[in-house]
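Exercise 7b. Backbone tokens:
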């Protein structure tokens, strides 16, 4: 197991499994300290700005977004009436690649992006190949008919057999479909990122 690969270093630096794969949980168990020699003694207390920057980078890496994509979501969230941090988090959750991952149809968000790019899913009967597609309540996402027999899905579904998807998604594993029943509530969004710090970072720039 590689503890110093690029992804492993990011996971160790953030102290959170940002990719979702079980192997990174094992890496954090074996190497909970940050990468580099003697990180505990070298890393002092981060400034407020550095903490906000680190949180932004963590969220970006977790959802697999470029800076331009990430900032565009923040700009959109800041224009909508309501609390910007909650709206921002909701927009992240509503990405199709995240929804596929949260529904238990992919081991990781990167894998979900790959599935979508290869055209494995339809939204309301229409094939969608854009991972950033924003799902809405009432939409139904289904694995395309000929893809349901793909050998890639049985081990994923078996691994998620006891997984409870968030309340805003109604998952039918037998039919390999997901219905978006509502917008994500704050308690159903990703809890390992502090979006308030990200909003503060962009607000000061």
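Sequence design result:
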């Amino acid at each position: 197991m590689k503890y110093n690969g690029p992804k492993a270093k990011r996971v160790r630096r953030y102290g959170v499994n940002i990719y979702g794969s079980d192997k990174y949980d094992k890496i954090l168990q074996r190497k909970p300290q940050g990468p580099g020699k003697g990180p505990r003694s070298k890393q002092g207390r981060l400034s407020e700005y550095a903490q906000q920057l680190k949180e932004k980078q963590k969220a970006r890496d977790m959802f697999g977004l470029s800076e331009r994509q990430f900032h565009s979501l923040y700009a959109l969230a800041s224009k909508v009436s309501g609390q910007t941090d909650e709206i921002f988090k909701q927009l992240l959750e509503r990405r199709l690649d995240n929804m596929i991952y949260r529904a238990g149809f992919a081991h990781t968000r990167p894998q979900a992006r790959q599935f979508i790019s290869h055209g494995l899913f339809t939204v309301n009967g229409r094939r969608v190949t854009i991972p950033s597609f924003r799902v809405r309540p009432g939409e139904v996402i289904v694995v395309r008919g000929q893809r349901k027999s793909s050998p890639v899905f049985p081990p994923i579904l078996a691994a998620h057999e006891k997984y409870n998807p968030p309340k805003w998604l109604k998952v039918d594993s037998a039919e390999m479909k997901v219905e978006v029943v509502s917008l994500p509530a704050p308690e159903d969004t990703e809890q390992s990122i502090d979006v308030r710090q990200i909003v503060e970072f962009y607000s000061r720039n």
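Instructor comment: Residues 1-36 form one domain. The chain has a mean pLDDT of 90.
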